[in-house]
Amino acid sequence: MCALFEVGLLRDWLLEVRVWLDTHPDEVVTILIVNSDAASTVELLPEFSSAKIARYAYIPKTGVGVTPAPSTPSASSWPTLQEMIDAHQRLVVFVANITPDPVMAPYLLPEFTFVWETEFEVVGLENFYCLPDRPSGLTLETAKSSGRLFLLNHFLYWNQAFGIQVPDVRFLNVTNSMYGVGSLMDHMRNCGQQYTQLPTFVLVDFFNVGPAIRTVDVVNGVTDPVERRSVSTDVFDRQFGTIHRSRRRKRGPTKGSYGTLLAFWSLVFLS
């Protein structure tokens, strides 16, 4: 599916992120590169170098290939947002399907060394669960004790002919909402209770449709967001060549805060 949504070079997009970081010195950004083509660090490094963005990158003290120990009340395995801002390490980069290179690319963090996530191929509003899906072999208890950050996948697929799956745009105002079976809030709270901790990151489809950002605001305790911009609530469905219009207007991404993060090809949240 990613090949159908070609939007240009990685370096061009990274440059946009770097310019934003240049002009927002008190913000922290997290990027997750899904890397379905298994690009190597040798292939990715020139993209980051061209954008001159690596100077902002966070490098963990434990090393690029070591899963952090779980945080305790007296010691955290991860810095706070303010500590990252003070250290000028305001960009966290996770990459799936990558062999870590602690010498040349200590800031390209193998996703599943540092993150665990729930199932991402969900079909049906009633099928959002909380069990770890990747990396394989984890239970809720071992995920929690591993020190990895919790990423909650919350988006629906729609089965088509020949085994093809596409984003299920029919239920966006449900999946990205605060109420009801299959809602974002319901999924976050259920998993937060099971895991005894809210997710660090949440991924959704089409953050601009439905109150996804407002839902995360509620969880993060954000009541007066700064520098938000109105964005279109249209969903362009390339699979069918149509535009779906939502009746609701939604404001853009939040200014950084210490809560549950928000970003990616969809949306994330800071803890």
From TrEMBL:
Domain of life according to the entry: Eukaryota
InterPro entries named in the record: PI-PLC_domain (IPR051057), PLC-like_Pdiesterase_TIM-brl (IPR017946)
Family annotation (Pfam families): PI-PLC_X
MF terms (GO), sorted A to Z: phosphoric diester hydrolase activity
Any GO BP: lipid metabolic process
PANTHER family: PLC-LIKE PHOSPHODIESTERASE (PTHR13593:SF80), PTHR13593
Record protein name field: Uncharacterized protein
